[in-house]
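Quick review question:
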């Protein structure tokens, strides 16, 4: 699989410790940031990526960004929770380039890292246990300001701990198998190209030429490797970036549409609603007013 030739950028959004009961029962949770849990006692369930996870004490759990998920706690459990943004370059996620596990047995070091991260960042816990409420104006629109209150050593230590915890979920065995496919390695260069040029006009012909392949062959092997046709992939990435801009900037709909490669705001709104089920305006209003 594609090697990480560029450093990953991680931004801590929130961290805290929660004691949760049967009220922790939420559906249709989709966020532009990743979630990481460490369960200390009790039990609960999480559902995402077509899998069901029993949240067990002593284990860590990762939920990637832009992943539909739901939660359910029948009785009681306690957890450390982390919310963070990750990006290799604008519009390109590490989840696209690497394979991940979503459940990992916590080590003594992992537990220390959660505690240390909380010590370094004591004032950014969430005030509402509803996962949908994590997406709120103060935390998203101003999350960069929180980094500025840390001194250099605290900031670097925070980044290092986030990197270590995220690295625990990388599926190295799957990587070794995928790295044998030179075709997929070449195709993943196209994903980087798409991320770098998402604001520009992109066509299957352009991408096929970039790979020195015919249009039909490129489209076919792209779907074989990534599960979707190239244009559908581009649309999904444009909508993902639009969601992030809607929640983290004050840009107008027109500005956001242009930044994600849509010249026509009506077409932008139609594609956005087709993928998310909501118009850009209603998505922003709903999420920022939870």
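Suggested answer, residue by residue:
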């Amino acid at each position: 699989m594609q090697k990480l030739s560029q450093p990953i950028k991680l931004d801590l959004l929130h961290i805290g410790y929660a004691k949760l009961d049967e009220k922790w029962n939420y559906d249709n949770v989709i966020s532009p940031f990743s979630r990481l849990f460490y369960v200390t006692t009790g039990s609960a369930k999480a559902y995402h990526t077509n899998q069901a996870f029993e949240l067990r004490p002593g284990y860590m759990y990762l939920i990637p960004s832009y992943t539909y998920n739901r939660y359910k706690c029948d009785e009681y459990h306690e957890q450390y929770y982390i919310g963070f943004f990750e990006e290799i370059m604008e519009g390109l996620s590490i989840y696209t380039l690497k394979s991940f596990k979503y459940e990992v047995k916590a080590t003594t070091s992992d537990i220390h890292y959660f505690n240390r991260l909380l010590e370094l960042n004591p004032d950014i816990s969430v005030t509402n246990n509803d996962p949908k409420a994590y997406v709120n104006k103060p935390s998203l629109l101003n999350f960069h300001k929180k980094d500025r209150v840390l001194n250099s050593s605290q900031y670097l230590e925070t980044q290092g701990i986030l990197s270590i915890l995220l690295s625990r979920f990388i599926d190295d065995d799957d990587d070794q198998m995928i790295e044998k496919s030179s075709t997929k390695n070449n195709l993943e260069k196209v994903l980087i190209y798409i991320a770098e040029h998402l604001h520009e006009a992109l066509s299957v012909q352009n991408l096929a030429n970039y790979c020195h392949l015919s249009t039909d062959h490129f489209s076919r092997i792209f779907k074989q490797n990534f599960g979707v046709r190239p244009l559908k992939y581009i649309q999904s990435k444009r909508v993902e970036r639009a969601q992030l801009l809607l929640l983290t900037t004050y840009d107008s709909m027109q500005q956001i549409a242009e930044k994600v490669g849509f010249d026509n705001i009506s077409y932008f709104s139609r594609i956005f609603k087709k993928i998310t089920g909501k118009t850009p305006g209603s998505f922003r209003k709903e999420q920022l007013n939870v």
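Why it works: The CA atoms of residues 88 and 250 lie 24 Å apart. Residues 230-248 form the longest helix (19 residues).
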